[in-house]
Amino acid sequence: MPNKNSLLEIFTTKIALNQRLLKLLNEQKTIGLVPTMGALHAGHLSLIKKSKNDNDITIATIFVNPTQFNKPSDLLKYPRPTQADVAILENVGCDILFLPAETEMYSPTETWHYNVGAIANELEGAHRPGHFKGVTQIVYKLFSLIPADRAYFGQKDFQQFLVIKQLVAYFKLGVELLCCPIIRETDGLALSSRNIHLSETQRKKALLLSATLNNIKNNYTTLPLADLLQKAKTAFKGISDVKLDYIEIRDKDTLAPIVQYKTPNAVALIAAEVGDTRLIDNMMLD
Ligand code: AMP
């Protein structure tokens, strides 16, 4: 139910948003930005709450960015419950929602992209060619439009966070990036807008992702990493309707592979398809 006392302001054009932003800048308000693709859940809300805590004004954006989808079917079926999202933002006390149409963000002849570099060929980049080109395109556009003091992203998309960190450093954008913890269901499943596509049986199978990460975390310092990874891969074998894309242990700053436990700087990252739904998750190991 929409909250009648809500002060959420919704802008669908850059011009209108810009006028509002100029006023906020004049008033020297600090701005927190939370970019999303909508279908909001408690993971998104945790970012908005953190932003509200840190800034005078919180701006959420909802834009299902077509250039970051490498599979047209995934883009087509991406959930877009806009009315419910607006109600959620009203209830959490978000100040501004930017909700642009595709034509507001992209021209039909656009070909530029930021050269993401080697990280684009790793993990998600390898399995979703062009994905990070699309992510950096839209994030650059949002950062150019909205003079945010801070921007909030989830550790859920950890590689994305590192790519955006690199983008911000490259262009020397004056925005502080914050990486917020992964919000999970009580049984461990990381919240994701795509979870609604899972049947009851698939949802149970999806628990294998977080269980695998937990198992790696629990044994990380005691068992050889190659054995741990092999055990994880074996656990996925023979499970119908589930396909493991990767399970990796990487340095959390560079994403370089870690082959032997040495220093406390590791993250385990996993991606798998459960039915037609691709899920990702990760866990810091120390
Ligand atoms: P999305 O709408 O999926 O593009 O996500 C928007 C932001 O919410 C991204 O920074 C995500 O990393 C973050 N996010 C998504 N799921 C979660 C979660 N379970 N916990 C915390 N943040 C999340």
Describe the model.
A hairpin with a 2-residue loop joins strand 8 (266-274) and strand 9 (277-284). The chain is built from 10 helices and 9 strands. Helix 9 packs antiparallel against helix 10 (225-236). With 286 residues, it is α/β, with parallel strands linked by helices. Strands 1-4-3-2-5-6 form a 6-stranded parallel β-sheet, sandwiched between helices. A 3-stranded antiparallel β-sheet has the order 7-8-9. It is globular and about 60 Å long. It is 39% helix and 19% strand. The longest helix has 20 residues, at 200-219. The site of adenosine monophosphate has 17 residues, from helix 2 and strand 5.
Summary keywords:
single chain, binds adenosine monophosphate, 3-stranded antiparallel β-sheet, 6-stranded parallel β-sheet, 10 helices, 39% helix, 286 residues, alpha/beta
Order of H and E elements:
EHEHEHHEHHHEHEHHEEE
Count of DSSP E strands?
9
Which strand order does the major sheet show?
1-4-3-2-5-6
Unreliable runs, pLDDT <50, ≥5 residues? none
Give a short summary of the structure.
The protein is an alpha/beta fold. The protein is built from 10 helices and 9 strands.
Strand-helix topology:
Blueprint (H helix, E strand, L loop, with lengths): L8 E3 L2 H13 L4 E6 L5 H13 L2 E6 L9 H5 L5 H11 L3 E3 L3 H4 L17 H5 L3 H15 L4 E5 L3 H14 L4 E5 L19 H20 L5 H12 L5 E10 L14 E9 L2 E8 L2
Parallel strand pairs: 1-4, 2-3, 2-5, 3-4, 5-6
Antiparallel strand pairs: 7-8, 8-9
Helix pairs in contact: 7-8, 9-10
Bound molecules: adenosine monophosphate.
The site of adenosine monophosphate has 17 residues, from α2 and β5.
